[in-house]
Write a structure and sequence with these properties.
The complex is a heterodimer of chains A (113) and B (223). Chain A is α+β, with helices and mostly antiparallel strands and 113 residues long. Chain A is built from two helices and six strands. With 223 residues, chain B is α/β, with parallel strands linked by helices. The chains are: A alpha+beta (113), B alpha/beta (223). Chains A and B meet through helix 1 and strand 6 of A and strand 1, helix 1 and helix 6 of B.
Chain lengths: 113, 223
């Protein structure tokens, strides 16, 4: 259940950002989560709802954009979708792969009133 | 109105982890974050490690447990500095919990600090604690599908210890397949087969620790 700890952080980040702009209510929180984070969306949305209770984020809609795991081969430069977590370049079989996306976990933006 | 945020969800944790890491560097500690399922053998590994490092490198332990202090009690007979963190319901340690343990351990008298995480293959991988390396332990009785089920943990770990290797013949655990799958997820992953109870692989593990310690600080051991 790392979703609960993650939800708590999301709520805190959203509230901090909203208060900085003097907003009274948060209506939507847009989060980007990489596939490798293994987040279960239903669980995160449920936890978010709990954590947001009695705050200015109460009732806010949590949008979760899951980004695919994409790697870049440091040897030949090939950019590819990492399927089944197989970090091997499909072009040159290189194994030194940089994760381009799929590991991020970020509050992108929020909508407030 | 839309407000651009672009903040990492775990930024607060990562900031504290970076501060912990600075403290460890100042005290010349090599810090290992040990993760596994419940019952994989983390505490037994710590007991063996304490025995084997005696007179070579000074070991301390921060042990995370959900409710009890049993792990810390088991380690007490080795006269190690041990701090027990009971996490309550939390299924992982985070950087703040580790920071709260630091005043209770004299880091200046340690070379190696092992942080025994809460038994869990999912959550601990998400939270940096300020460690130099994440170590993952998997036991042969747990089944061989783990690397593809819990890829983040395998991806984040520098070393995989496959424990209870002496029980391999009693299980249907496919050792070669596990290693192949683990290396698919993380090609540079180092793997050592061990048996904490039969003593297999412990010397390789101790060698791994010593090498990392010397590499970090570029010095010989005191012994």
């Amino acid at each position: 259940m790392h979703e609960m700890a993650i939800a708590r952080n999301i709520v805190n980040i959203a509230i901090t950002a909203a208060e900085k702009e003097g907003a009274k209510k948060i209506t939507r929180v847009n989060v980007v989560a990489g596939e490798l984070r293994g987040i279960i969306p239903a669980q995160l949305i449920f936890s978010f709802g709990l954590m947001a209770e009695n705050t200015i984020a109460s009732g806010a809609y949590l949008d979760l954009e899951i980004t695919p795991l994409i790697g870049k081969c440091k040897q030949c430069g090939e950019v590819f979708v990492v399927k089944d977590y197989c970090y091997v370049c499909p072009k040159c079989r290189g194994e030194d792969i940089q994760t381009v996306s799929g590991i991020e976990l970020r509050v992108k933006d929020i909508e407030v009133e | 109105m839309k407000i651009n945020v672009m903040t990492d969800v775990l930024e607060a944790n990562d900031r504290i982890a970076a501060a912990n890491s600075e403290v460890f560097k100042k005290h010349r500690n090599l810090v290992l974050n040990l993760m596994s399922s419940p019952g994989a053998g983390k505490t037994t590994l710590l007991e063996k490690t304490a025995e084997a490092l005696k007179g070579k490198l000074r070991l301390g332990v921060i042990a995370g447990d959900i409710e009890t202090t049993r792990d810390a009690e088991r380690l007490q007979k080795y006269r190690l500095p041990v701090v027990q963190l009971t996490t309550g319901s939390a299924c992982h340690l985070d950087a703040n919990m580790v920071a709260s343990a630091l005043p209770h351990i004299d880091l200046s008298k340690l070379d190696i600090l092992i942080i025994e995480n809460v038994g869990n293959l999912v959550c601990p991988a998400e939270f940096k604690l300020g460690e130099d390396f994440k170590i993952m332990m998997l036991s042969v009785t747990e089944g061989d599908e783990k690397p593809l089920k819990y890829p983040l943990m395998f991806r984040e770990s520098a070393l995989l210890l496959i424990n209870k290797i002496d029980l391999l013949k009693y299980t249907n655990f496919n050792l070669e397949e596990v290693k192949a799958n683990a290396r698919k997820v993380h090609p540079a992953l180092e793997i050592i087969d061990i048996s904490c109870t039969a003593g297999r692989g412990i010397s390789e593990w101790i060698e791994w620790i010593s090498q990392r310690y010397h590499k970090k600080f570029g010095i010989k051991t005191r012994a």
